[in-house]
Design a protein that fits this description.
The complex is a heterodimer. Chain A folds into 3 domains: 97 residues, no CATH class; 53 residues, no CATH class; 101 residues, no CATH class. Helix content of chain A is 54%, strand content 1%. Chain A has 14 helices and 1 strand, in the order αααααααααααααβα. By secondary structure, chain B is mainly β. The two termini of chain B are 37 Å apart. About 2% of the residues of chain B have low confidence. Classes of the chains: A mainly alpha, B mainly beta. Chain B: It comes from Apiospora aurea.
Amino acid sequence: MGKKKRSHPDVEDILSRPWCYYCERDFEDLKLLISHQKAKHFKCDRCGRRLNTAGGLSVHMNQVHKESLSHVENALPNRQGLDVEIFGMEGIPEDVSQQHNQRIIQNFYQAQADRYAATGNPPPGQGSKNPPKKLKIESPDDIKKRLAEHRARIAAQKAAGGAPTHTPPLVRPMARVLPRAHLLAHSYNSPFPPPGGQYPGFPPQGAPGFSPPPQYPQGGFNYPPSNLPSRPGSNLPAPSGLPLDLASLGDHIDQMIRDLERGEAAPKSATPATAEEPAPEKKSKKDKDKNVRMVYDDDLSPEERMALMPRYAFVPQAV
Amino acid sequence: MAPTTQFELAQPPNDAISSLVFAPDAPTRLLVSSWDKNVYLYDTHTTSENGDAEGGVSHGTLLKTYEHRAPVMDVCFGADDNEAFTAGMDWEVRRVDLESGEQTPVSKHTAPVRRVVYSKAHSLLISASWDSTLHIHNPSNPSLTPLTVTLPGKPHAMAASPSKVIVAMTSRLVHIYDLATLAGALESQTGSAPPPWQQRESSLKFLTRAVAAMPSDGGYATSSIEGRVAVEWFDASAESQARKYAFKCHRQTDNTAAAGTTDVVYPVNALAFHPVHGNTFASAGGDATVALWDAEAKRRMKVYQKFADSVAAVAFSADGRFLAVAVCPGFETGMEDYSGEGCTKIVIRELGENEAKGKGAK
């Protein structure tokens, strides 16, 4: 099954985005980052000149305006220093870079977990085999109702004087399923509780809401078998789909696998990254012959054009 | 309140301005030629009693107007502050006595006269007309038969340095004449025009719009309709010619266009060198801005805040303290009904001590 293109970028994509040391903003490409830095952090507030680095701005302020630069404009409080020489992604201290990456990763998984929690979608790679959308969790009321039906049935059987030999196979699956459903609805502690032990405790819980349905169908023997076989299949994968910690663990593993896959592709993706350096240069050259509109484009001068207008035209008298 | 460094002149011309020039001596005497067929003489720094009552927003006094038969394309001062010469659409070059208002035709071309310059040192009046000729007069000796120099193209801009006159024509032609040679040829009365001292091709690919000469006599600057200015030197030696350069200016980036960004290129309508800081020159563009440049250091020194409309002309006063800016709508390609009526203004800017002083080459 091919990987589906998602609107949410990979953590890898986010990590590879160029970002600004001074304000932690990230950008589509290096060119944008550099122009951002020139405009926001390295711009002279006296004359508007955009320098390439904080050091350059400092020298400019010194020489041109006879002032000294004390800090970098628009920077985060702990990033205002002039001691680090930053140009684009160059010059970012290792520890700051790692902090940034960690923050990105943390935010990414937080956002991802929030998204899964909000949409109920499974983490990638786990939802295809057992889509938990088919999972039906019976509410306690449903379970009580079914239990009541079951009891009514047994009671009816007993009342009919039928042999109780049929009940154990019926009760057993019920006993196994019901506590689990009950547990899933309340706490996810134990996925496989001992079937026998839980059953006796159940009726008292369900008892208050219990009322034997008077419309109980006599052909009720068909009911439990039709319902039961579907349950184990849909119930078993539930733990992987529901608990959030497990989900993100699964995603971590998923991510690790992708990291490994990417490890091979990394050198390939690195080459375009380095090739990106000259690319903005070329683009800016192209920019030079971008659309140009001349306000006046004519072989005649504006004055000659104006002289042709009746308003200004001079008709020499016949001499 | 901070001292007003910039103000609008009261009673501006009724229509677009073709040229403005400060007097050679008095720093507040300003002549303006207009498409409304008048030449205006202002004193930029006296406020008349009957000036408008809007709390002194307007300054200066209109001293006199000199009506012509047709739009006036250019004006220059003559030998003193009371003599002016005008270039008219009516093919005539006129001498105007600014005191009496008396006008005397000096020369007649066979097409509108585009530019007129006067060289005090050589007592030469040179007029350039779309009939592709220069007429050269000595106004102080009217008995001399004027000299006619035939040009290879229609002249559009002309400027005189202390010893040269630069004529920029269509087809990117630039001729430089030596004033002393022209004066000698006029004196000799042989009627034969001397060849140009130098013939050049413009450094700019588009139609030349303006020329200004360095007061130092070192070189000149030209500008074109395609937002560009070139600076070059008279000296024909290889190293001097290697110094010449051109740069883009008076452009705006338009991001509103549907097809991405568009560079809107305005014509550079006028150039003027600073009489004191000779390396500084001003450029005036159709983008409604005036910029100061340092020709030596190849640096822009200043861009003034946008004016209300395209800037048609600029001039520095003789002492370099004032900058006159002619603001009126620019003529753009495809215009059918141009009119500068009601939109024409003259802005006088008082320059700060070092505002126009360059830093010199680095």
